[in-house]
Every structure is written in structure tokens, then in C-alpha cells.
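Researcher: I'd like a structural prediction for the single chain below. Treat it as a standalone chain; there are no partners to consider.
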Amino acid sequence: MIDLSKKFGMNDAYLRDISNQVTKKLTTYFRLLTVIYRSDPNKFNLVKVDDYENIKKEMHDEVFFSMKRMGIVKDEAYRLDFDATFYSILVLTEVKKRSSDLTYGMYPLSKFGEDMGYDEKLFTQKFHDGTHIMNSLADAMMYEINIPGVNPDLYKLAQDKLKDIKVRNGEGSENDYHRFWKELYPIQVVELLKITLGLDIWGSEFFEDAKLDKKTYKIDIERHHLERIKSLYTIFRFSKEYLNDPDKFTKEKPPIPFENFLIALAPFMNAYHTGLHHSTKFTSDTQLAMMRLMHLYEVIQRPFIEGFDYKNTLLAEFKANPIWEDLDDGKIKDWITRWEFVKKRGYEAFFLDSNIGYPNFYKYRYKPMENDFKLFIAGGDSVNKELFFKEERRNAFWGWFLRTYLRDNVYPTI
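Model: Treating it as a single chain, here is the predicted structure.
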């Protein structure tokens, strides 16, 4: 085992440690396969050096099926996603083999996700949740691995797998939420913060402002589909019966909460988001989250009357409502303070306030998107090249945003 570890170019205990650990870390398996692919066949005393190609193929299969046995991938339907991701990582590892970007001999999966503007847990979450790579991510991956110094054979392996993914998905098969997941993020986070004023309605605590992580300001907010309908891309979902009513959205026929519409997306901290996905009480927990969000949404719409005692009135209202029984008085009072601030000074002042707002996220994540949208409307080119990995992507997103999102993202009055 020690001799074999050395031949792979790793420390003496490398293979022993892997075999002795029951691990569920995606990176461990990717790293093992990367080591196998990058090793020198001449070190293994093979009768035919070409036999090493067969060894690689067998180990490739074994690594994938080991991941399946460990529950890291759900089933064989994700083999294409695994292959495309692995070959892309292999391409980046080879190009950057003398770079400090490598971690233990491999280009990190987390950094690959971040390079494309996604969360560092992108691939871990995808394999864990059992969601396929969609066309927009496949495009971003192809763009990211097409760099100077790339090994043409490795690049073709990765490119072919990514093209196979797009064939599998089919043109137009990708729902809009996933197609524009990255671009919608800062816009929808601000929309949701305008309802919750920063309260994580599941964790009963307030989100912290974004912090600088390398080159990007990141905030611990995940968008959660409350009904697990992953195709939904708007904050609210209306019933088909109501949408087909010719008198919809009129004074005579205003939408009724929980009958004509539900809140479809909720903002959670990552820890609570993951916990709810694996909750044995998913239905009841989801209903509680919906009721809390709906209550906040209703309170947000109330008019502000100068001199009225909102602190005590709203405090009594929250305390009397059983859906908030685990929210302590201090948190309720903090939320009321934010509500009064917004009513008196407006949302932008709230977001920019360094004490209770989210100035980093607002200035460095949301405003660049808002400014780029204004440029797009005026027919101008983007001045922030980090927002979109290519101009075609920018045009596609803002075109869809204008034609579809702004039309469908209706806010009901209650």
C-alpha cells in the first residue's frame, strides 16, 4: 500500500487513509481519481504501458460506484454529470499544475464553482440533492475550461461530456429559475429582505450582512422552494383558477392568502435550508414557514401613522400568534425597529444602514445588477464584466427579465 501510494505521487499513508475512512466527502473521491489519471504509467512495471488506460477506466467506474454506494450520488442517472465535472476538474488541474490554486494536487471543486459565479458548495449540493447539471451551467463550465495551455485531448473529453449533457437536457428543457439562478440571486435576495427585513423565519434570527470572501461579497442566504416545485421562479405562486378569472387582481376580486396564492420562495440560512430539506416533518414545517412569511408580508403592507404606538401593539400581536412562539421579545422588538425605519426612511436607507441593514450586499451585489439593467435598457454595454461570463448571456437574461420575470412576478395586496 505504501509503495503504491508513492507511485501515485502521494504520501505513504494516502491509500491506507482512504481505505480506512468511511467518508462522504465528494472531494476525496475526485482527488483519488485525479491522482490516478495524472500518475506516470511507467512507475507500475506493467507488461504493456497501454494497460494503464484499462486501469484508469476500471478505477473510474469503481470510484463512481463507490460514491453511489456511499450515497454521495443517488443513482447511475448522474454518471454523465459526474464525468463532465471530473474531466473539467482534470483540465483545470493540468493547466494550473504549477499554481498555488491547487489543493493537495487538484483544482478545488469549490473554487471551480466560485470561478463561474456560483456558491462554493455548488457541486457538493448538486450531487447531494440529486439535481442535474443544466444547460446554463454546462455553458459556464465549457467557457471556464477553454483557457490557454489546455491539453487538447483532456479538453475534448470534458467538452464532449458537457455537450452530451446539453443533448440530454434538450434545447428549452431547462426551467427559467435554474437557467438564471445566478443572475436572479441578488435581485431575489433583496426582494425577500424587503418582506422579512432580514429575519430568518426558520432560524428565528437575523441574517448578517455580506462579507468579502476572496473577490466576492457573500451573504448566508439560500432561496428555498417551499413546495419543492423547483420550476417556480417568482416570489408568489397563484392558483390556476384565480389566474384564469377575468376579474383577478381587482378590488372586487382581490387574491386571498392560502386560497388564491402562496409564497413560493423563502430566504433561509444555509444550515436551516439543509435541515428543512431533510426534516421528517417537511409538510408541517413548510406550512409554518409559509404562515410566518405571510404574516410578515401583511405587516409590511400596513400604512405608517405617526405617533402610533407600534412597538407595543406589534409586540402584543406577535406574542399572541402561536406561529411565533419561539421568537423571543428582543427579536420581535428588533424587527419592529426595522419596520419603523423602513416606513419612515424607505428601503434604500434601510439597506445602506450599517447598524441594521445590509450595505455590503446592497452596494456590491445588488446595485451592480441594477445599474447594469439600466444600461441594458438604454442600449449600453456592460461596464462590469464579472456579472456575466459573456455578452450573449447578459442579453438573454435581461431580455427574459423584461419579457417574463417582471410580468409574472406579481405582488398581491392583502
